């Protein structure tokens, strides 16, 4: 391993400790294994999964750190003996299984990406989780085509704001839901063709009125599935990425057969390193040009010093945010 000289062997980080307030505490600095990269963190993105992890509902995969945080940007500090593509000092961003709320974070070499042109180092921390989730589902699994219609639940979320821009850049039409008229307006400003306030309108009827969806990206589940089936076009693909509204749904199988629907879903965190490497490759080849051309920008709701992560979590839990929240060092 080539390693710069630091060398207290300790660093500051934030561990997931249930509902206890988040503390900026001393922990051992990680050392990269053969295929890993050690990143000196400049910024970390917040995700809904971080809130779920604190509640014990989304544990890190086996062997992953107890330090919170799924995505970072920063500088390569050291590389493992088998790492060929990354050099000490390069600016990078990365998807992590855990470990991002820290001064130093470990990433598998295949989950590390260069900072795209057009964004700052801090903004780049907000790209990996959302871009790779949207690519995995909407582009890889559902194969959204230009001219098709994508319907996104939670259009003002980190995932939603990214999906609107990526699908629009592809040449698809996007409709979304959001929980307030202000959030609906923000989604339209980002490129959505229409936005339905799910608290005051019936999104199923609204979506039917505009012709239905070819692809649905759903983070709610529960009794939304029958509505999505009703408002889907023939051959539609319905993707589940979260179950905020319930784990179970009743499905009319005859409608699934008659419309020849695909109903599926996925999680990003549980994917293996090879899968994540594929998604990182697609991000760099297909999505970074959209960032460089200004068609995709992370929507930064707010920024907090990393030691104030508790306040950042309060902002995310309040549901008032549009886009993503960033922690900086
Ligand atoms: N499976 C995966 O691989 C994967 C990866 C990343 C994220 N996710 C999931 O994707 C979701 C978004 O993640 P994020 O980090 O971007 O979180 P976030 O910004 O906190 O977004 C949560 C969103 O859910 C929306 N929502 C909640 N209840 C709703 C309802 N009944 N109807 C319609 N929308 C509703 C909220 O809408 P309003 O605020 O407008 O009310 C908000 O936009 C989370 O549930 C997260 O767990 C899954």
Question: What's a quick, concise take on this entry?
Answer:
This protein has 329 residues and is α/β, with parallel strands linked by helices.
Structure description:
There is one protein chain. With 329 residues, the protein is an alpha/beta fold. It folds into 2 domains: 185 residues, Medium-chain alcohol dehydrogenases, catalytic domain (Quinone Oxidoreductase, Chain A, domain 1), CATH 3.90.180.10; 136 residues, NAD(P)-binding Rossmann-like Domain (Rossmann fold, 3-Layer(aba) Sandwich). It is 30% helix and 27% strand. α8 links the parallel β13 and β14. The relative contact order is 0.15. Bound molecules: NADP nicotinamide-adenine-dinucleotide phosphate (NAP). NADP nicotinamide-adenine-dinucleotide phosphate binds next to α1, α3, α4 and β10.
Provide tags for this entry.
alpha/beta, globular, Rossmann fold, 329 residues, 30% helix, 6-stranded parallel β-sheet, 2 domains, binds NADP nicotinamide-adenine-dinucleotide phosphate, 8-stranded mixed β-sheet, Quinone Oxidoreductase, Chain A, domain 1
Bound compounds: NADP nicotinamide-adenine-dinucleotide phosphate
CATH architecture grouping of the largest domain = Alpha-Beta Complex
Kindly name the structural category: alpha/beta
Distance between the termini: 25 Å
CATH class of the largest domain: Alpha Beta
Instruction: Give me the strand/helix succession.
Output: EEEEHEEEEHHEHEHEHEHEHEHEHE
Query: Any idea what the radius of gyration is?
Result: 20 Å
- In the CATH hierarchy, what is the superfamily of the largest domain? Medium-chain alcohol dehydrogenases, catalytic domain
Report the count of strand segments: 16
Mean pLDDT: 96
Net shape: globular
Instruction: Report the uncertain regions.
Output: 1-5
How helical, in percent, are the residues? 25-40%
Q: What percent of residues are in strands?
A: 25-35%
Total discrete domains: 2
- The DSSP helix count reads 10
Largest β sheet strand count, sense and barrel closure: 8 strands, mixed
The name of the CATH topology of the largest domain is Quinone Oxidoreductase, Chain A, domain 1
């Amino acid at each position: 391993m080539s390693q710069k000289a630091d060398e207290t062997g300790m660093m500051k980080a934030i561990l997931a400790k249930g509902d206890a307030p988040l503390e900026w505490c001393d922990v051992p600095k990680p050392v990269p294994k053969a295929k890993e990269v050690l990143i000196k963190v400049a910024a970390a993105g917040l995700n809904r999964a971080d809130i779920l992890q604190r509640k014990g509902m989304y544990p890190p995969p086996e062997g992953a750190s107890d330090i919170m945080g799924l995505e970072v940007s920063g500088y390569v500090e050291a590389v493992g003996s088998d790492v060929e593509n990354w050099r000490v000092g390069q600016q990078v961003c990365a998807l992590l299984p855990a470990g991002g709320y820290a001064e130093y974070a470990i990433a598998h070499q295949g989950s590390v990406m260069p900072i795209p042109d057009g964004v700052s180092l801090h903004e780049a921390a907000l790209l990996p989780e959302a871009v790779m989730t949207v690519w995995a589902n909407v582009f890889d699994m559902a194969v959204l085509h230009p001219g098709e219609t994508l319907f996104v639940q939670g259009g003002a979320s980190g995932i939603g704001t990214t999906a609107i821009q990526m699908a629009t850049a592809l040449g698809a039409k996007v409709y979304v839901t959001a929980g307030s008229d202000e959030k609906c307006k923000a989604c339209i400003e980002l490129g959505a063709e229409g936005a339905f306030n799910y608290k005051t309108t019936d999104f199923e009827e609204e979506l039917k009125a505009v012709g239905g969806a070819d692809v649905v990206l759903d983070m709610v589940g529960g009794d939304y599935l029958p509505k999505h089936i009703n408002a889907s076009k023939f051959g539609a693909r319905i993707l589940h990425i979260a179950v905020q509204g319930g784990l179970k749904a009743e499905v009319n199988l005859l409608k699934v057969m008659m419309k020849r629907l695909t109903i599926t879903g996925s999680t990003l965190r549980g994917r293996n390193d090879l899968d994540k490497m594929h998604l990182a490759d697609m991000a760099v080849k297909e999505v970074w040009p959209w960032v460089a051309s200004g068609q995709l920008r992370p929507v930064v709701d707010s920024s907090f010093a990393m030691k104030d992560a508790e306040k950042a979590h309060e902002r995310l839990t309040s549901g008032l945010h549009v886009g993503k929240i960033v922690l900086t060092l």
